[in-house]
Amino acid sequence: MKALVYLGPSQKALQDRPKPEITAPSDAIVKMTKTTICGTDLHILKGDVPTCQPGRVLGHEGVGIVESCGAAVTAFKPGDRVLISCISACGKCGPCRQQMYSHCTTGGWILGNSIDGTQAEFVRIPHADTSLYPIPEGADEEALVMLSDILPTGFECGVLNGKVQPGSTVAIVGAGPIGLATLLTAQFYSPAEIIVIDLDDNRLEVAKRFGATATINSTNGKALEAVMKLTGNRGVDTAIEAVGIPATFEMCQTIIAPGGTIANIGVHGKKVELHLELLWDHNISITTRLVDTATIPLLFKTVRSHKIDPKRLITHRFKLDKILEAYDTFGNAAKTNALKVIVEAS
Amino acid sequence: MKALVYLGPSQKALQDRPKPEITAPSDAIVKMTKTTICGTDLHILKGDVPTCQPGRVLGHEGVGIVESCGAAVTAFKPGDRVLISCISACGKCGPCRQQMYSHCTTGGWILGNSIDGTQAEFVRIPHADTSLYPIPEGADEEALVMLSDILPTGFECGVLNGKVQPGSTVAIVGAGPIGLATLLTAQFYSPAEIIVIDLDDNRLEVAKRFGATATINSTNGKALEAVMKLTGNRGVDTAIEAVGIPATFEMCQTIIAPGGTIANIGVHGKKVELHLELLWDHNISITTRLVDTATIPLLFKTVRSHKIDPKRLITHRFKLDKILEAYDTFGNAAKTNALKVIVEAS
Amino acid sequence: MKALVYLGPSQKALQDRPKPEITAPSDAIVKMTKTTICGTDLHILKGDVPTCQPGRVLGHEGVGIVESCGAAVTAFKPGDRVLISCISACGKCGPCRQQMYSHCTTGGWILGNSIDGTQAEFVRIPHADTSLYPIPEGADEEALVMLSDILPTGFECGVLNGKVQPGSTVAIVGAGPIGLATLLTAQFYSPAEIIVIDLDDNRLEVAKRFGATATINSTNGKALEAVMKLTGNRGVDTAIEAVGIPATFEMCQTIIAPGGTIANIGVHGKKVELHLELLWDHNISITTRLVDTATIPLLFKTVRSHKIDPKRLITHRFKLDKILEAYDTFGNAAKTNALKVIVEAS
Amino acid sequence: MKALVYLGPSQKALQDRPKPEITAPSDAIVKMTKTTICGTDLHILKGDVPTCQPGRVLGHEGVGIVESCGAAVTAFKPGDRVLISCISACGKCGPCRQQMYSHCTTGGWILGNSIDGTQAEFVRIPHADTSLYPIPEGADEEALVMLSDILPTGFECGVLNGKVQPGSTVAIVGAGPIGLATLLTAQFYSPAEIIVIDLDDNRLEVAKRFGATATINSTNGKALEAVMKLTGNRGVDTAIEAVGIPATFEMCQTIIAPGGTIANIGVHGKKVELHLELLWDHNISITTRLVDTATIPLLFKTVRSHKIDPKRLITHRFKLDKILEAYDTFGNAAKTNALKVIVEAS
Fold it and tell me: Are B283 and B259 spatial neighbours (Cβ–Cβ below 8 Å)?
């Protein structure tokens, strides 16, 4: 089968690989129909993810059709259309019992990381019963690709952890795909204000279209002043970090109101400074989270009832044999204005 | 009247001061019976609290008898025995409505800080109806002095923010008075393990007597290893910082289990390093809080029903005219083994 | 001044009454600009509310301008435009500290009940600082009249108590003004389905326009079957009772899914049957609540940011001297299709 | 093997039955070491549980040793000592994902009900990975038998649903084994008062020994007056129904304070009256729940750390071949003072 293989820092190729086989009774083999590329795949290609070794098939998102099932799989059968969670979860261990699937003792984020992933014609899904989700007849599968990772990430790590509430004031720092997914799902809770902050005017325009009530280009270094003006000098109830660098995390610390929550989504490569000398008495919370995808069933319902249209995040489409082109387009988002690209595997 | 007055860094004196008078209809004048000294008073004396200017009467804890009331005070009358909250709260503003009294727009921690405090024969209490609490007939007033600040601080900032639960594993970093108050109130929730970490063996012995299930002297720099051994390499569900320096806050980051909470109590004078490069995917929370004293009524009930004995924190007693001696004793806790000292004002 | 006075069962009149005066330092006198009539006023007129004695000025909703303030009022001054909460709250007692203002020991629902109310040219508001809310420049005051009672009632007793969540399934039993207010505010949380059940097709059509995803006319006694068909035989996550009679409360018991919540809003005059022989193992919750109006500030923000348009509830407008006509119109809603009527006092 | 078999209303026998066999890959066969008898077994014998048909081996509690495992079982292997949950849970379905194991679509309470149970030498456990719990070396297995059902029932349905809090006031109506299990686990949260109400002085004496702060014999019909006297006429924050008849559920309605919670544990055979005409504005919650046993891991930790001693519930011990005697003793608790009886199967 064709598969996009990581070959070491800055190296990847579309290769022929043997079709995966069932290795445990709880496995399923899924024939991919659509997958996508994640910012994390670019991180891997920079060599930033040591758990991902050369030779690995990348990808942890997508939809497909069950090809075969191990003997212990009871929820699915060959032919079922399924959504693949980016997080594999056994459903049995301590963390899984708490719906903290990201810390499953035999799963978590392993797809396209420590085991072969979804940017291929077929993929082996461990713990299939608790890592796949049935796609109902007539659903728009392209939209559902956004439920593998990006929408639950924005919703769980940003919106839920950030305790977004009706009438509250939210700032989202970073208007990349993940910041925009956060923006879309934040509106489930009807906050009064959603301020989006970024360096790129194009992205800020998209944010406006996606529901931001105000946008701030922070290039001039005056984002703090702008937020304070917008909030009557009070700051925001929720500040969501969707970039992953020290500067944006520090910005969150300056704009958060007493009693507020800073919800970190960004993947950080460096330590940051925490200004406890200012914040120790501000009654704030700071949260971190790797997405658990525990809200996929909830998000399914919001899509089906048209509370959200995940396809707004999709800007480009490619066939699997053009996946290198898809990587180029996604990797040059500043030029291409790419948000999420769909890769059609069959 | 006699009053302990801050005269600038490292300077204080017991002086004669005019008796305070009612200046707003919601004020009450309270004749102090017992007060105490807080670690924060020592901070002021180091010159670390710029809001507190020379000439200020110190003290923000204590019990007394209502001497007179402004026209708008409805909950108290002269002669009532009262507990004074260290936090003055108007009960009307946005933060007060959320029980975040520490951020009351016309109150908060002002006693013995920006207005004269309780280490005196009399004190003016603003917003009396919502800043005083009635003491029932027959209650042990000495015990209740611990409810002005130290017990709600340990309970709200450490135990409640830290989400201590039955069966959970808790570490308290710092076994000074505030760490010990946290230790006492953590037991309201029956955690399975409470590990107390400090540099001082005497304090750790007190912690053992107060209910710690394990103690660690971190002088050897091996606290992390010791915690991991005690927790089967998992870390703790709740790590409570009760010191206020970078080293102890960093220790909390190393011992916290995925899904856990770091609850900061310490008053920090410097920024700290936050290792988001390690913690971004650990699903943790970090909280800060200035005590709101919203739990004083709850704590009252636990004292009355003997769920806690706050007097265990009291080690020394002085008359008000010996308050300089009381400061010496409290300030040299390493030698004197002082925890909380009672100062009898009348 | 002119005032609508309750004179005993089925009797009311527009009378001349002395202008109210300040009787406590925390009182304010408010010159009414707009008020409205509540279903509860009709209950009083049926003689169903024994706390309301003949001679009482009715009304517990409205907006106005502060005319004068007692000495203890600090948040308002003459000339301020204010929203009046239907619940008077001292902000000091145990229930008020918990934001359970409805059970304030010296307040609660007293306006137009045990003290004179708002259907008059002037009204005395006790505990003014915590029972009035400032109206910002430029706000639409007519819309805000809906925030005195009906919107917080639907939101607090129905939506919040009912734990409406993104993607969840909600049934609202009763499409009168209060059911419709619940329908409007339920959408703050983006539930997937909101099924509205009533006997009146006109009201159900309004519900459709207001956002119901399905409506059921229960006249044929087959509402249960219809709900089960709509929910794949599972029942609803939240059932909100907005009528106040045994039949509708029993319907809620039949349609609630395991793990769900029945939130009662209705004012009940009779006991009801609770089918514990069926529900004891269904993991459900049932809640009751008199509105606390603790969410008025939140609702203010949702109105200002156009998350909700409360004016959709307003169907008729009258001058105060035509208030008897307003009562007729509101009392004959089946004919007049009245929802809320605005009465202009000045 | 020997097994206690239900033969229809009022009929049971100790019979020879074939040893159970694995029928699904997720099954395990457990060799029983200790089991017990539950009040629900007596209900079955009265013919009150139609899902339990004649021929069924009774019992849903106990500890044992894994004899064999299906191919999909990964958490256990032959020889492992295990605790059996009374609730079988697949860990995969919608309710299981929410930890509402009691409503597992292919499990729930089936043991000793719709499939053969634990009062036998061997039992087949479906969904073994998520229905068994490992027993650590050196644990007291007799104590752990109480974790199969009775302790999680008291804790989940009574204490957690009832929101017992430090300093709060709790009433437990019914001092049978389940009421006493509730009493023991309520103390995890340090409520100020736990009032236990029953008709039997012996049981009330046990309640006193187990930590009740007050007991009321309600034979004289004056329990309400007694509770009101004990609570300063306020009522209780939490009322826990642990009997299952209309009279006790109605008592809970009379003693609950505004803002409080009635947590039902009792298995009800009849509908009850709910006094909404009194309670509609009391801001109360009523909860029902079939135990989910989701807290078994938590309870394990509280037992291991000596926060609770479950053996206090054990009054009698029998060998399996004397199980009919055990039933007699347990069934005549009024005479024998039996709480829980241990039946040793091997």
Answer: yes
Closest Cβ opposite residue D25 in set A72, A75, A130 = A72
Average pLDDT over every residue of D325-329: 98
Rounded to whole angstroms, what are the CA distances from A25 to A22, A128, B161, D161? 7, 9, 43, 38
DSSP assignment of A237-248, as one string? Answer: EEEEE-S-SHHH
Answer yes or no: is pLDDT of B283 > 90: yes
- Exposure string of A78-114, with b = 16+ CB inside 10 Å and e = fewer, is eebbbbbbbbbbbbbbebbbbbbbbbbebbbbbbbbe
Decide if A124 contacts A151 (C-beta within 8 A). no
Binning pLDDT at 50, 70 and 90, where does residue B204 land? very high
Residue C200 φ/ψ, nearest 5 degrees: -115, 115
Q: Which residues of chain C lie closer than 8 angstroms to A188, CB-CB? A: 166, 189-190
CA distance B85 to B148: 5
pTM reported for the whole predicted model: 0.97
Provide the 3-class DSSP secondary structure of residue D209. helix
Beta-carbon count within 10 A of B247 CB: 10
Residues (pLDDT < 70) of chain A are none
Low-confidence stretches of chain C (pLDDT beneath 70): none
Rounded Cα gap, residues D151 and D181, in angstroms: 5
Helix intervals (H) in D89-222: 94-97, 141-145, 150-152, 177-186, 201-209
Confidence of residue D346 (pLDDT cuts 50, 70, 90): confident
E-strand spans in chain A? Answer: 2-8, 11-16, 28-36, 63-69, 81-84, 122-125, 132-134, 169-173, 193-198, 214-217, 236-241, 256-264, 272-274, 285-287, 314-319, 340-344
CB neighbour list of residue A266: distance below 8 Å, 6 or more residues apart: A174, A241, A242, A243, A244, A245, A248, A249, B276, B280
Are D166 and B213 an interchain contact pair (Cβ–Cβ within 8 Å)?
Answer: no
The answer to whether the Cβ–Cβ distance between D288 and C277 falls below 8 Å is no
Q: Provide, as residue numbers in chain A, all residues whose Cβ is less than 8 Å from the Cβ of C165.
A: 298
The first and second tokens of residue A307, run together, are 């509370």
Nearest CA in chain B to C72: B72
Does the beta-carbon distance from A92 to D72 stay under 8 Å? no
Angle at D220 between CA D218 and CA D223, to 5 degrees: 40
Asked if residue B228 has pLDDT above 90, the reply is yes
Question: Which chain A residues are closer than 8 Å to C301 by Cβ?
Answer: 166-168, 192
Determine the Cα–Cα distance for residues A107 and A84; give it in Å rounded to an integer.
14
CB contact under 8 A, A167 and C298: yes
Do the Cβ atoms of D179 and D241 come closer than 8 Å?
A: no
pLDDT at B346: 85
For the segment B13-57, what is each residue's pLDDT rounded down to a tens digit?
Answer: 999 999 999 999 999 999 999 999 999 999 999 998 999 999 999
Pairing of strands D122-125, D28-36: antiparallel
CB neighbour burial string for D26-44, b if at least 16 within 10 angstroms, e if fewer: bbbbbbbbbbbbbbbbeeb
Do A188 and C192 count as a contact with CB atoms less than 8 A apart?
A: no
Q: What is the pLDDT of residue C136?
A: 87
Single out the residue of C66, C72, C86, C65 nearest to residue C295, CA to CA. C86
Q: Collect all residues of chain C within an 8 Å Cβ-Cβ radius of residue B97.
A: 91, 99, 294, 297
**Per-residue pLDDT tens over the stretch D263-307:** 999 999 999 999 999 999 999 999 999 999 999 999 999 999 999
- Enumerate the residues of chain B whose CB falls inside 8 A of the CB of residue A267: 280-281
Residues 252-281 of A with CB under 8 A from B: 258-259, 264, 266-277, 279-281
Smallest Cβ distance to D288: which of C269, C272, C280? Answer: C280
pLDDT band at D14 (very low <50, low <70, confident <90, very high): very high
In contact, D25 and D72? CB cutoff 8 Å: yes
- Residue D138 confidence (pLDDT) above 90: no
